[in-house]
C-alpha cells in the first residue's frame, strides 16, 4: 500500500458541516478516494485505533473526542500518498499550520484540528485495515 494513506475527517469537522469542502480539497489536490465511509466510533474502537498513544497524557481526551460524534474514514491514493496527505493536512496545531492547509483553514485547536492522517506507509496499511476490508478498497 505504498501509494495509499489513511485519513479521517474528525467529529469537529463533520459537526461543522465542512465534510464536503474537505473532500473537494482532497480531490483537487490529486488524491483518488479508494474507500470512504461515515462512522461513529465507540470509545472502545477509538481506544483500539489510538492504542499506540495509550500511555500519553492526551489519550483519554483524544479517544473521548474521536468517539463523540460521526467521522469520515478514507483510504486515499496518490504517488507519495503519506507525505502528500500530511502536507495537505498541515501542522497538528492549526495556529502553526501553513496557509492553504486543511488544519489552518478548518482546525480550531490542537485537539480539534479537523483531520487525521497516517505518519508512515506502515501505519497507513495498519490504519486502513482497521476500518476497511480489502473488498471495500476500490
List the helices and strands and how they pair.
Layout (H helix, E strand, L loop, with lengths): L3 E6 L1 H5 L3 H10 L3 E8 L3 H7 L9 H8 L4 E7 L3 H9 L12 H5 L8 E3 L3 H11 L7
Antiparallel strand pairs: 1-3, 1-4, 2-3
Helix pairs in contact: 3-4
Largest sheet: 4 strands, antiparallel
* Rg calc: 14 Å
Distance between the termini: 13 Å
CATH-level-4 superfamily name: Nucleoside diphosphate kinase-like domain
Number of strands: 4
CATH architecture: 2-Layer Sandwich
How many separate domains?
Answer: 1
Looking at the structure, the CATH topology is Alpha-Beta Plaits
SSE series: EHHEHHEHHEH
Provide keyphrases for this structure:
138 residues; alpha+beta; Alpha-Beta Plaits; 7 helices; 4 strands; 40% helix; globular
Describe what this molecule looks like in 3D.
The chain is an alpha+beta fold and 138 residues long. The protein has one domain (4-40, 70-136): Nucleoside diphosphate kinase-like domain (Alpha-Beta Plaits, 2-Layer Sandwich), CATH 3.30.70. The chain is 40% helix and 17% strand. The protein has helices spanning 11-15, 19-28, 43-49, 59-66, 81-89, 102-106, 121-131; strands at residues 4-9, 32-39, 71-77, 115-117. A four-stranded antiparallel β-sheet has the order 2-3-1-4.
Can you summarize this structure?
With 138 residues, this protein is of the alpha+beta class. The protein is 40% helix and 17% strand.
Amino acid at each position: 500500500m505504498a501509494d495509499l494513506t489513511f485519513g479521517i475527517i474528525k467529529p469537529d469537522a463533520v459537526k461543522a458541516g465542512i465534510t464536503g469542502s474537505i473532500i473537494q480539497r482532497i480531490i483537487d489536490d490529486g488524491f483518488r478516494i479508494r474507500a470512504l465511509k461515515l462512522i461513529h466510533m465507540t470509545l472502545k474502537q477509538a481506544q483500539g485505533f489510538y492504542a499506540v498513544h495509550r500511555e500519553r497524557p492526551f489519550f483519554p481526551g483524544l479517544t473521548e473526542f474521536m468517539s463523540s460524534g460521526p467521522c469520515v474514514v478514507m483510504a486515499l491514493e496518490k504517488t507519495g500518498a503519506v507525505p502528500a496527505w500530511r502536507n495537505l493536512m498541515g501542522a497538528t496545531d492549526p495556529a502553526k499550520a501553513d496557509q492553504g492547509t486543511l488544519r489552518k483553514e478548518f482546525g480550531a485547536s490542537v485537539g480539534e484540528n479537523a483531520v487525521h492522517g497516517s505518519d508512515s506507509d506502515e501505519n497507513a496499511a495498519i490504519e486502513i485495515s482497521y476500518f476497511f476490508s480489502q473488498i471495500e478498497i476500490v
